[in-house]
Amino acid sequence: RAKDEGGGEHCQYEPTLHAHAEERRKLEFSLRRALERDEFELHYQPVVDANDETVVSFEALVRWNSPEHGYVRPDKFISLAEDTRLIVPIGEWVLATACAEAVNWPPHVRVAVNVSGEQLIEPNFATTVVQALSDSGLPANRLEVEVTESIFLRDANVVRSALEQVMALGCTVALDDFGTGYSSLGYLRKLSFSTIKVDRSFVQGAAQGSAESLAIIRAVVAMADSLEMSTTAEGVENAEEAEMVRGLGCKKIQGYYFGRPMPVDEVQQVFARKGEVRARIA
Ligand code: C2E
Ligand code: MG
Ligand code: MG
Ligand code: MG
């Protein structure tokens, strides 16, 4: 797993503004060719049921291996793809590929796909989803779309309509990285998210004894419970953190403790071991 998360930092120096702009320009040049040159790959990270620790879904996380730039972390190229609108074709590829790969998994295992605001507000977003489902044969109820709070900075009617169309197809929608962004709670009343994903920063904070982080997790879980939404704790890295978030009432858990993002062939090996993820990867 050489090209995985790891440390692989690319900037050892503090770049000047010019060098930074130049690097971005080069990265953009390569990114424009990445799809046709087939340089993307999806890795999948397990999400487990907090109670019995069986796998309920895998989140698709895109990876870019560039011949010019080496392994580029999503944190770096996703924002560039959003700025240049390249996220629209890249996101289509992610959706189609995730559905095509997940159709081979056991029927109770779902796949979650991250969708950027730029992609969501495209007029034909729902059509893209329909296409990915029908091309792959994946039942709609096995696809979850993940969006972050930042989408609500866009036109509320457009966002709402796009999410409602996706839900009408039978897909679910999760609210990712909850608590880190734009936090008006009004949209929670209007849209039926299936799951709220509690951001890793709160899990890490609470694990390090932050009373504020702990209070926020408690509040989010209580709110989700009363709105009949599920909760996923992100970034759980050890048994103590798993125990903590389970105790706080989180319904599902995701994090390195249960498995790192892995290539699709390793996902199949997880099923061979009857879905008991933790036994193998960590
Ligand atoms: P995200 O959707 O919140 O995904 C979770 C990120 O947290 C992943 O980073 C994952 O590797 C990392 N992670 C999971 N468990 C742990 C843990 O226990 N400890 C730590 N330290 N980290 C953990 P990754 O793969 O680098 O992705 C970063 C972000 O890039 C994602 O955050 C998502 O916002 C975005 N992204 C990834 N793939 C796509 C995509 O296909 N489309 C779009 N639009 N965005 C994507
Ligand atoms: Mg996500
Ligand atoms: Mg997240
Ligand atoms: Mg995140």
UniProtKB/TrEMBL annotation:
EAL domain segment(s): 24-275
Domain of life: Bacteria
Identification of the protein by name: EAL domain-containing protein
Organism encoding this protein: Pontixanthobacter aquaemixtae
Residues of the full protein shown: 505 to 786 of 786
